[in-house]
Design a protein that fits this description.
Length: 148
């Protein structure tokens, strides 16, 4: 009869060790998943900035041929970009329509009222904490949610 309690105790100790191992493995998996999700979002944000920068160059080329004017929509600059994939942010949920919007269509590119203004932006739904914005001088920067 003395052997039975020790077997039960040993079995209980092994079960606790297994449960503890499974708990640590789950916690580690969750931490790694969160890190990969953040890394993926940062990569999408950089790809989005690259798309917007390319459109900035397209807008500049369009403006050069159209008396310095910013196009009203993407159809007007179609000849200056190569892929419709660039019209959607990699983080966009809805890829059936453009993720970006031209805000100052018809105004002068690099004019006094557009040089520091946001010329093109994206949907605030694309990224969790803000959005990318193309400015009139051609640079793209991240605008946090609180500044939108």
């Amino acid at each position: 009869m003395n052997e039975q309690p020790s077997n039960v105790q040993a079995h209980g100790a092994r079960t606790r060790k297994r449960l503890m191992f499974v708990g640590v493995a789950i916690a580690l998996f969750l931490v790694l998943a969160l890190m990969f999700d953040r890394s993926r979002e940062k990569a999408h944000r950089v790809m989005c900035m690259s798309n917007m920068h390319a459109f900035g160059l397209s807008i500049a080329m369009y403006a050069e041929e159209h008396e310095g004017r910013i196009p009203r929509d993407f159809g007007e600059v179609r000849q200056f970009y190569t892929s419709d994939k660039a019209l959607t942010c990699p983080s966009a949920k809805d890829r059936s329509r453009p993720s970006y919007e031209i805000l100052l269509g018809g105004k002068k590119w690099n004019g006094p009222d557009t040089i520091d203004a946001i010329v093109m932006t994206e949907s605030p739904l694309n990224h969790r904490s803000g959005r990318n914005a193309l400015y009139g001088d051609g640079h793209v920067s991240w605008v946090p949610v609180s500044d939108n």
